[in-house]
Amino acid sequence: MTFVRIGGVAHHVTVDGSGPVCVLSAGLGLSWFDWDPLVPLLAPHRTVVRFDRPGHGLSAPAAVPPTATGEAHRIAGLLDALRLPGPVTVVGHSLAGFHGEAFARLHPARTAALVLADSSVEEHPRPGRTTALAGLLGAALGAAGVPAALGPLVRRATVRHHPAPAELVRRVYRTSRVLRGALLENARYGAVAAELLALRERHPLPPDLPVTVLAAPDGSARWERRQRALARRLGARYEAVVPSGHLVMLDRPDAVAHAVLHAGQEAA
Q1: How far apart are CA 52 and CA 33, in angstroms?
Q2: Dist CA 113 CA 110 (whole Å)
Q3: What is the CA 51 to chain-centroid distance, rounded?
């Protein structure tokens, strides 16, 4: 188990395999072990880096509220702390798709490819709840013992078909730290989405960057249309992963691994 300090915050990170570097960042409220099914598919060919954002998994609480720019720099800081060479492939799931795209725009020379795994999409983002309100709610729920009583149950209900080791689920999701981390990211969701739209105007992606949009429409025509629109906006290759739910790295790790290992080798 490894911890590195980025911006004064201790981040939990795991590194497996060898070869070109691939960074995996999961969605809101998820942990490093949610990438477990993908690791054996990538590790023979890639150095696989998994990390927990502040307040998630085993990482310390956030020092400042998240921003798109801050999360892009967090990935760069992680690579610096681990002394891993670039450029790297970044895989962003759900909310972390915002972070992966921001990294590619702000650190183009360090980006070999970008894979968006059922990424969040916000064409017209709205400001969310204030971070102060999220902090108060997290403190109140923590003081009432809600995470210790219900955290693992909520995790198992949310991720029903992919049971993680019970010991790890209890260790992570019984803590008020993880609840506060998820509430803080949720409160900043709209602001991060709006910031990413602004970054698109000022920082174009490199024209030759391989980008893949992996969508899990799960029967939703509207979600598929939005994901296709995202792929067009980014000049990306589009792939609908069927069957799969939103947790595509758990439902279809083979599809995610294929996107990583064949980035740039298939026609958009």
Answers
A1: 10
A2: 9
A3: 9
Q: Strand, helix or coil at 115? A: strand
Helix axes 68-82, 189-202, angle to 10 degrees: 80
Q: Is 207 helix (H, G, I), strand (E, B) or coil?
A: coil
Q: Say what the alpha-carbon torsion angle 166, 3, 8, 119 is, to the nearest 10 degrees.
A: -60
Give the model's pLDDT for residue 59: 98
In the numeric block, the tokens 């595509």 are attached to 248
**128 confidence band (pLDDT: 50, 70, 90):** low
Q: From CA 119, how far away is CA 264, in angstroms rounded?
A: 19
Residue 90 CB neighbours (<10 A): 30
Could you give the C-alpha distances from 41 to 16, 91, 248, 261, in angstroms and in order? 11, 14, 14, 10
pTM of the model: 0.95
Q: Which of 193, 68, 184 is nearest to 121 (CA)?
A: 193
Q: Are 217 and 242 in contact (CB under 8 A)?
A: yes
Q: Could you give the CA distance from residue 115 to residue 213 in angstroms, rounded to a whole number?
A: 6
